[in-house]
From TrEMBL:
Protein name: SDR family NAD(P)-dependent oxidoreductase
Organism: Paenibacillus agri
Assigned protein family: Belongs to the short-chain dehydrogenases/reductases (SDR) family.
One Pfam family hit: adh_short
Classification via Gene3D superfamilies: NAD(P)-binding Rossmann-like Domain
GO molecular function, a single term: oxidoreductase activity
Swiss-Prot/TrEMBL keywords: NADP, Oxidoreductase
Lineage: Bacteria, Bacillati, Bacillota, Bacilli, Bacillales
PANTHER family: (+)-NEOMENTHOL DEHYDROGENASE, SHORT-CHAIN DEHYDROGENASE_REDUCTASE
Amino acid sequence: MKKFAFVTGANKGIGYEIVRQLAEKEYHVFLGARNEELGQKAVQSLGFSNVSFVPVDISDTLSIQSAKNKILEVTDHLDLLINNAGIALDFGILPSELKLETLRQEFDVNFFGTFQMIQTFLPLVKKSQGGKIVNVTTDMASQTMFANGEIPQLNILGYNSTKTAVNSLTLAFGTEFGTSGPEILGVTPGFTTTDLNHNAPGGKTTAEGAQIIVKYALSDTNYNGKILDKNGIIPW
Ligand SMILES: NC(=O)c1ccc[n+]([C@@H]2O[C@H](COP(=O)([O-])OP(=O)(O)OC[C@H]3O[C@@H](n4cnc5c(N)ncnc54)[C@H](OP(=O)(O)O)[C@@H]3O)[C@@H](O)[C@H]2O)c1
């Protein structure tokens, strides 16, 4: 059966490279982007016949619903849903200085958006034999690693807590799915130089970051309900 993947936030950065790597593996990939022009441009510049654009703003319920309808015109199943879209608005801002409105905006996209994406597309993922949902997370969201100082101490309360909440989605849906249902897992690419961190130097390339996500997306090992970095399972 033909394989289908949907990647959100894929007009640039890590998402764009995830699309490329899955398209090379002969998936039909729906490249999700909230901006029509940027999404179309990304599809054109990738140059694959098996990549098509699906507009989706994950903070907008109607947009998610119309993305689903657009995909249903092509297929009734999704083998991979990669929840990659995300924002970080509080780099360099101390918790004591974080504005409530900024925190809400981050939760709106990273947490509520990802939650709605999972609920909306779950019926399509369930229709695939071995369907998988990958939530892109960060090691900075691991409470254990943060408390133990195992990662660079970037105390970004807003961004980090939204991804901790995304990890909760992974655990909760994973618990619901058990061993027989679809799989849901969280994967961190690790520090990757992108617009998200204002292109901070010293990170992985977007292709390297994407490779880690694609490795787990295509793995035969069942990591349902786990969060992972390039070396394997990481603590909550
Ligand atoms: N870079 C890192 O070091 C790193 C580390 C760990 C995890 N991550 C995670 O990796 C993922 C990709 O980030 P990136 O580093 O590649 O950043 P990026 O280059 O800024 O890409 C983020 C993507 O998300 C999209 N997006 C933002 N809000 C959206 C919304 N409401 N609806 C749909 N799409 C939306 C952006 O679209 P626009 O172009 O329209 O803004 C863009 O396509 C994120 O989830 C991030 O948290 C990144």
